[in-house]
Amino acid sequence: MRDDITETGSKGMSREELLALPVAVDLDTGNRALGLGRSKGYELAKRGEYPCKVLRLGNAYRVVTADLLNLLGLAT
């Protein structure tokens, strides 16, 4: 079984996994949390249309975890 598949067999992240994330995560982790495919997530980030705040650091994208949790209704 792949690491990114939960016990229910679906992609995504559990509430516990989401709340344990660092301050910013890579775009692949943000995509996984939102249920977005890799291509779609990068396309949205490049167009500035990602559903939460994304920082561009050189060639890398970082998703702000606080915005991600807020979007998912898990903000503390």
Task: Summarize this entry quickly.
This protein is of the alpha+beta class and 76 residues long. It is built from four helices and three strands, in the order H-E-H-H-E-E-H.
Break the fold down into its secondary structure elements and pairings.
Elements: H1 15-19, E1 24-26, H2 27-34, H3 38-47, E2 54-57, E3 60-64, H4 65-71
Antiparallel strand pairs: 1-3, 2-3
Helix pairs in contact: 2-3
Model description:
The chain has 76 residues and is an alpha+beta fold. The chain contains four helices and three strands; from the N terminus they run αβααββα. A three-stranded antiparallel sheet has the order 1-3-2. The longest helix has 10 residues, at 38-47. The chain starts with 14 loop residues before the first helix and ends in a 5-residue tail after the last helix. Mean pLDDT is 85; it is low at 1-9.
What labels describe this entry?
4 helices; 3 strands; 76 residues
Number of strands: 3
Shape: globular
Low-confidence spans? 1-9
What would you call the structural class? alpha+beta
Q: In percent, how much strand structure appears in the residues? A: 15-25%
Instruction: Give average pLDDT, whole number.
Output: 85
Main sheet attributes: strand count, strand direction, barrel closure: 3 strands, antiparallel
Radius of gyration: 12 Å
Neighbour order of strands in the largest sheet: 1-3-2
The helicity comes to 25-40%
How do the SSEs run, as a string of H and E?
HEHHEEH
